[in-house]
Amino acid sequence: MHITQLNRECLLHLFSFLDKNSRKNLAKTCHKLLEVFQDPLLWSLLNFHSPVELKKDNFLLGPALKYLSICWYSERVKVCNIEDWMKNSFQKDFCNRHENTVSDFLLDVCNRCPNLLSLTLSGCGHVTDDCILQVLKNCPNLKSLKLENCVRITDRTLEAVTLHGGSLRTLHVDFCRNITQAGLERVRQKCPSVMLRAERSANMIPDSKPEKKLMLEKASRKLVQL
């Protein structure tokens, strides 16, 4: 029995076990399998592990998408999460090459995926408050938002949660060094039903302040003296 003799439901089930690249390669073999690849039911869950993956034509964005995860665990993350004043020219050039990769992708998600239920971003150093605000506005059913180590996130995102996160039940902002304790308390007061987690966030030194560099230099001198 040839694979193309299987009905649509069986083919969708088989495709569901394949990664994005394997699905795309299989879809190239015949028109029937291409139709299965393009079925929105196949794309309710998407996981990405590098910025390169976001630019590939091996997935489908649409109203069926419910769960989206973009997690960067590589040397790219370390470079992008360094404060701008600490980067050398090579690192700045490296970051500029993919600065808008995630934000552009999230804009597509806002336009095409209104039924999103869960968004996980980890180590995405270029995600801004404006990105998250648009997601909250355009995905009203969002229940889970996890922003671990998204260093550009500030109290503006927390304020957006209180204004537009009516369906939100889980909010993780661990290691987001530019949010404050006051912002976290505001979320707790205005959104008591949201499970909030913010490990180390408000206790970390925020970015882009001349005083920060001075504080780090003083701390370094103290360690040398000890």
Description:
One of its GO terms (cellular component) is cytoplasm. Keywords: Ubl conjugation pathway. InterPro entries: F-box-like_dom_sf, F-box_dom, F-box_LRR-repeat, Leu-rich_rpt_Cys-con_subtyp, LRR_dom_sf. By secondary structure, the chain is of the alpha/beta class. The chain folds into two domains: 1-41; 43-222, Alpha-Beta Horseshoe (Leucine-rich repeat, LRR (right-handed beta-alpha superhelix)), CATH 3.80.10. Helix content is 44%, strand content 11%. It has eleven helices and six strands. It has a six-stranded parallel beta sheet with strand order 1-2-3-4-5-6. β1, α4 and β2 form a beta-alpha-beta unit. The longest helix is centred in the C-terminal third of the chain and has 16 residues, at 210-225. It is globular.
Concise overview:
With 226 residues, the chain is an alpha/beta fold. The chain is built from eleven helices and six strands. This is FXL22 protein.
In total, the number of domains comes to 2
The largest β sheet comes out as: 6 strands, parallel
Number of strands: 6
Query: In the CATH scheme, what's the topology name of the largest domain?
Result: Leucine-rich repeat, LRR (right-handed beta-alpha superhelix)
- The order of strands across the largest sheet is 1-2-3-4-5-6
Give the integer mean of the pLDDT values.
85
CATH class wording of the largest domain:
Alpha Beta
Helix content: 40-55%
Distance between the termini: 75 Å
The rounded Rg comes to: 21 Å
Reading the helices and strands in chain order gives HHHEHEHHHEHEHEHEH
Uncertain runs: 210-217
Q: Helix- and strand-based class?
A: alpha/beta
Question: What percentage of amino acids are in beta strands?
Answer: 5-15%
- What is the 3D shape? globular
- CATH architecture tag of the largest domain: Alpha-Beta Horseshoe
